[in-house]
Specification:
Blueprint lengths: L3 E8 L21 E6 L10 E7 L11 E6 L12 H8 L3 E6 L15 H4 L4 H18 L5 E8 L1 H12 L6 E5 L11 H11 L5 H18 L1 H7 L7 H17 L3 H11 L5 H11 L9 H4 L10 H12 L19 H12 L7 H8 L4 H4 L3 E6 L19 E6 L19 H17 L3
Parallel strand pairs: 1-4, 1-6, 4-5, 6-7, 7-8, 8-9
Antiparallel strand pairs: 2-3, 3-5
Helix pairs in contact: 1-16, 6-7, 6-9, 8-9, 8-10, 12-13
Length: 448
């Protein structure tokens, strides 16, 4: 009897926090299928279901080859790009790929057409993990993969999901890759900005100072007349608090994606430009920091647009995951100085019109935070030198007796989930080396 190897790939793609991993938001030439998943996996009296989309690869009916199942997380789902690293892993072990859309995103949407708080109660990482487990059952029972061996792969928030799948469902998942996996739900995540400061301080002489100056300038101009800033960024809907979030992300997101050198060269170029606020708006759009994704006006809307995901993701970090990029104890942060936990509590309240704030102690107690490395097995954790999200993940392990690996890709301008990007001949040696090691580990695991 054949053994089949199924590898789940779980990806984060919201607010531009995760990109380039092989499941970009574009129209798929591959026709999708649907299956009935449970709305609530934890209430046996609730039998309601919803249609969850997946994009079948060429594995259907072929039980003699490994299968990679790619789970598109909090964005519209799609098929996996042919040249992605995920496809390279599949090719190396003789496998194929199928992708799965995350609940409440794209068209995998339960509870009618409204993103009300009542409906959003069913949007959680707990339910999403159970969705993956249920999908495994669907494949085994309906698609003839009863002897499948399952692996998970993911990046960022979905890197956490990948590791948690191995930790919570070890009877279903035989191993996991957690690329930039944020397994620690950090409430007051000031280490994020601390890391960004260290990156830009090692680029150009005036970069850090210039960033602070334009932040101060934006605040002063807003106080004089908010429309100066709204017009510069083509965002007439901004209130002050949602603008603060957006504006700070212009700088930190550029660094997290491995573009710290580009950011500082850009800041040096525009520091004496009288239209530098408009120039920063151009930088924001080039780095996917689209203003409307941060705006209360759009986050408050309960209308479900399959192309949009900002209300859903805001709900997830406000209700359970946090990762609040705050100033904490930093004296000179690279964001507005009032962006502390009180700011984030207000942001969440204004987004949903009621008190909503995460209990990260509860989340971490259930899923182990970085201590997952001490209790789980067969997980690969990867991080890159310039990525500030590494401080919510596993950066090192003392031993790999349980086949726990931590790999830091030590290269300049290497950022978030870079190992999952499409391989290129010009990639840094550290990234190429990490990818080879990842493939080698999976090649071994599929034989065990």
């Amino acid at each position: 009897m054949y053994k089949i190897f199924v590898i789940f790939v779980i990806l984060w793609q919201v607010h531009g926090w995760f990109e380039g991993t092989g499941a970009e938001d574009f129209d798929s030439p591959v026709e999708h299928g649907t299956f009935d998943n449970l709305l609530d996996h934890f209430d046996p009296s609730n039998t309601e279901t919803f249609k969850q989309r997946y994009w079948p690869g060429n594995f259907m009916g072929k039980n003699d080859k490994p299968v990679f199942i790619y789970i598109c997380a909090e964005a519209k789902g799609s098929y996996v790009k042919p040249n992605s690293f995920i496809m390279k892993i599949a090719e190396k072990v003789g496998g194929s790929v199928v992708s799965l859309e995350h609940r409440f995103y794209g068209e995998s949407f339960p509870q009618g057409e409204e993103l009300t708080l009542k409906n959003l109660e069913y949007l959680s990482h707990d339910q999403a993990l159970a969705d993956v487990a249920y999908f495994i059952g669907f494949l085994k029972e309906e698609k003839g993969l009863g002897n499948s061996k399952v692996f998970t792969v993911g990046g960022s928030y979905a890197g956490a999901l990948s590791a948690w799948m191995r930790y919570k469902y070890p009877h279903l998942v035989a191993g996991a890759l957690s690329s930039s996996g944020v397994v620690n739900a950090v409430l007051d995540f000031y280490q994020f900005d601390e890391h960004v400061k260290n990156v830009v301080a090692n680029r150009t002489k005036d970069c850090e100072t210039t960033i602070r100056k334009v932040i101060s300038e934006a605040e002063s101009l807003w106080k004089i007349n908010p429309w100066i800033i709204r017009n510069a960024h083509k965002a007439p809907y901004f209130e002050w608090e949602d603008f603060e979030f957006y504006y700070s992300d212009i700088f930190v997101e550029t660094v997290q994606y491995g573009r710290g050198s580009h950011l500082c060269q850009y800041m040096d170029k525009i520091k004496f430009d009288k239209n530098r606020q408009e120039k920063l708006a151009e930088l924001a759009l080039n780095n996917r920091a689209q203003p409307h994704k941060y705006a209360f006006q759009y986050i408050r809307s309960t209308y479900h647009n399959p192309m949009h995901s900002y209300r859903q993701w805001t709900y997830q970090f406000c209700s359970a995951l946090a990762y609040f990029n705050s100033v904490g104890p930093l004296k000179d942060p690279l964001r507005f100085k009032n962006m502390n936990l009180a700011y984030w509590r207000s942001y969440c309240m204004k987004s949903f019109g009621t008190e909503i704030f995460p209990n990260t102690n509860h989340t971490n107690a259930l899923y182990g935070d970085v201590r997952i490395k001490d209790v789980a097995s067969r997980i690969i954790f990867t991080n890159a030198r310039d990525d500030p999200w590494q401080w919510a993940g596993v950066r090192e392990v003392e031993t790999n007796k349980r086949e726990i690996y931590a790999k830091l890709m030590d290269c300049k301008d290497c950022g978030h989930c870079i190992d999952l990007h499409e391989p290129d001949v010009n990639d840094p040696e550290a990234v190429t080396k990490a990818r080879k090691e990842i493939i080698d580990i999976f090649s071994y695991w599929v034989t065990q």
